[in-house]
Amino acid sequence: xxxxxxxxxxxxxxxxxxxxxxxxxxxxxxxxxxxxxxxxxxxxxxxxxxxxxxxxxxxxxxxxxxxxxxxxxxxxxxxxxxxxxxxxxxxxxxxxxxxxxxxxxxxxxxxxxxxxxxxxxxxxxxxxxxxxxxxxxxxxxxxxxxxxxxxxxxxxxxxxxxxxxxxxxxxxxxxxxxxxxxxxxxxxxxxxxxxxxxxxxxxxxxxxxxxxxxxxxxxxxxxxxxxxxxxxxxxxxxxxxxxxxxxxxxxxxxxxxxxxxxxxxxxxxxxxxxxxxxxxxxxxxxxxxxxxxxxxxxxxxxxxxxxxxxxxxxxxxxxxxxxxxxxxxxxxxxxxxxxxxxxxxxxxxxxxxxxxxxxxxxxxxxxxxxxxxxxxxxxxxxxxxxxxxxxxxxxxxxxxxxxxxxxxxxxxxxxxxxxxxxxxxxxxxxxxxxxxxxxxxxxxxxxxxxxxxxxxxxxxxxxxxxxxxxxxxxxxxxxxxxxxxxxxxxxxxxxxxxxxxxxxxxxxxxxxxxxxxxxxxxxxxxxxxxxxxxxxxxxxxxxxxxxxxxxxxxxxxxxxxxxxxxxxxxxxxxxxxxxxxxxxxxxxxxxxxxxxxxxxxxxxxxxxxxxxxxxxxxxxxxxxxxxxxxxxxxxxxxxxxxxxxxxxxxxxxxxxxxxxxxxxxxxxxxxxxxxxxxxxxxxxxxxxxxxxxxxxxxxxxxxxxxxxxxxxxxxxxxxxxxxxxxxxxxxxxxxxxxxxxxxxxxxxxxxxxxxxxxxxxxxxxxxxxxxxxxxxxxxxxxxxxxxxxxxxxxxxxxxxxxxxxxxxxxxxxxxxxxxxxxxxxxxxxxxxxxxxxxxxxxxxxxxxxxxxxxxxxxxxxxxxxxxxxxxxxxxxxxxxxxxxxxxxxxxxxxxxxxxxxxxxxxxxxxxxxxxxxxxxxxxxxxxxxxxxxxxxxxxxxxxxxxxxxxxxxxxxxxxxxxxxxxxxxxxxxxxxxxxxxxxxxxxxxxxxxxxxxxxxxxxxxxxxxxxxxxxxxxxxxxxxxxxxxxxxxxxxxxxxxxxxxxxxxxxxxxxxxxxxxxxxxxxxxxxxxxxxxxxxxxxxxxxxxxxxxxxxxxxxxxxxxxxxx
Length: 1109
Description:
Pfam families: VanZ. By secondary structure, the chain is of the alpha+beta class. The relative contact order is 0.07.
């Protein structure tokens, strides 16, 4: 029998026919089980019913029916094509396949009417025929490659192993995503979100541990494949394999989350990379010194393992889970036993049936492998009777034991056990034969159309890495694209316009993949609509980031064997990633319920994800940056352009803000700008940090040598300097001074060998100095900044006390000391443990009787506001429902001209509650016409906001159905019933210390512990040391990066900048630019002698770069 099969296998066309026939038999069997034939219908009745087949509104097993017909159609098309050479004949083969299986589908559905409880529907026919069409399309696209791969496997040697591993990876990914029952309803998605944390599939039971151990084992071949692709001797291989494992795990878990039956497991994010890492280690160990044991040693080892295996097998089958039944109960259960194969699988969901099948099959794989080892690793896959008998006997004993348990035995498991043991024995024999048959064959035959860069394999074989990496990247990108689509569909502010903008950006990225280097820095400070949308956990800028990653990851392979990063950078990034993972997990667990408060409150544990997302965005953008550097893209030039666009836009917004609220040249009024940094609604110095970081990059305008660009640079510098000054922040002035000193010292270092360029340098420096004096002097003469300087000592004392308080509220245990309180945990910890006299105000969205409302507490001032538009001269009606825990509760609703932190020309409206305690009551009042929001054009109108404020100490107000209606009856308030949670509402507060630790290093110590602070310190030393080396080689862009980091860290002395994800993203993007080698140094190390090495620049003239700096 084996010889016949081997003979058939040598002829692919016959083998394809046998495979197609096998699947056809399986389909017929599966569609008529449990074979309950009924003759009560006449042929006329059946035909009449069949002509009116219903279309069910439910999914009705759509995915299973579709997937079932893909393999037979694929192999049938392959069988017919293998006999034909002309295109017309192959086209006829396609039509024959479609007609044949179309006839099979219709026939099966017709005869199923005679076999209740089988259901017949139009859904089945559509899904099944779609599967046939998909199978044919897959053959047309990949049939030739499939045949080449099969021939490679048949020939043996290294190509056979490689091709088999490729098939294994494809099959593994398909298996992980089965049954592809994607969520098509928002209601189902909401229910799944609500139950996400309710139950855990894994409670560290024996079955759970065995399952996760199996995950590790099945991922080891993928690690071996990656080792063959990337060459095990390279230092970057281990890192690349672990990153690959993490990416594929995240992709699979994200996709499974959007499946109805999918269960996302956080533990898989560890077990899959672990399995790949073990596979890589095994390959490296075998390549250095092949692992060979004597036959006697193997048999002794197997003998010792037999008893533990049988005990484990019995435990997995529930033998030790309960007391056994009596003989009488066992006989009764045996009498009810169904002997029909796969009978019980029909009555359970497809996902559960598949999981059971794989679980049983995996349990008996050790029998086939054990017997293969016992027989001295034979190359021939004959003598299969013994593994069948051993596996069948063990399965029979296990199933017999279930007669005495509450579990029902299933004789199908015996068939599965026999098949599993035989297949594992055959595959092991094949691998042994492949490993010994060293048939030279270029693996390029498997990928004939690929022209990407290749990496060398053993014995001179080459394989295109790009071809095999793209499917994995695209799987990850597809999952991100699904999130983008879902986020846009739920976006509160004009999702159509957002979708159009994202589509245009996607087209731009597809045509120019490097465009993100301009777009992301440019949009970072100005794309923030949180004031209007209320979304501050995940907003439109995050959607742009996800779309960027998805498009570029889909478009081209991002893994490269070239050394793009400086030495030891991989280790630095690795320990940073580890500390970020730990602190994020600490802050996240235990996760809060997924309700309306989960992603709308800084006290939520999910604030850990909000705070840390800036780093993760930067990490996913790092491969994109490496790819652009490898291709010779002028990344420094493009990044600088993006930063300057963002800086110019921010400066314009600052000027508009000053013009609207204080006057451009009024330096006496107590007003500090915020621009579009919505994160400053609780205070913070994020606008300060951004300006200090971006300002040094203005120097790039003077590097081009063009007068127009230089004039633009002068304009941007003037506007940005004005923006820094009108923050009226003393630390900003210090940052500007220190940044200037760094630039001056670095310029002197660059000019040592270019003294002849000193004239141009002095000219540019003189212009900048004169502009600085002209802009600075009027601001310093203002009374407000003088008051700020006079209170410096008091402010410093307040900061010191706050830093001491921040450290004192940390938990007193060694884990907190080492790893911190977790990302985003400061507001929650401060609220719970602070001993200050003032208490921050709380807000919460609650549900009673399926009605959601806002509960507003009391404490330090907190205003829950919404941006509105009013017309001059109109009167409005303000109404709402209120409930309070005190009899005379008061809700204040000011309508003000509003910036982020300041209010002007307010119309204060107080609504006094007079209903009984705990009872809802409706209130209504008239808002008199006013001149609020004056201005005739949109850019001259003052932004208006209506706010909800509870100023009565010790009271709690429940608020619902807020309306502000016009005389025409139009309601100006959106989401006034709070059914959409935080949408359109955004709070601000006058109490800032309760939300921020106010120092970057204190923040890291609080959130990440001493381990995180140590890692951050190492990172900073490495960055500045690397940048100094680059400056010594003549790299002036490195000087600008050093100045930007200096500005960022200086602002960090007085504020916790990593509270704002955009600032975290900006910091790490600059860090990546510092770590990435300039294109001319790729593949080289920094030389010891620095006197003659020049880093290439993408600007017009290198000498001008040095001189202008």
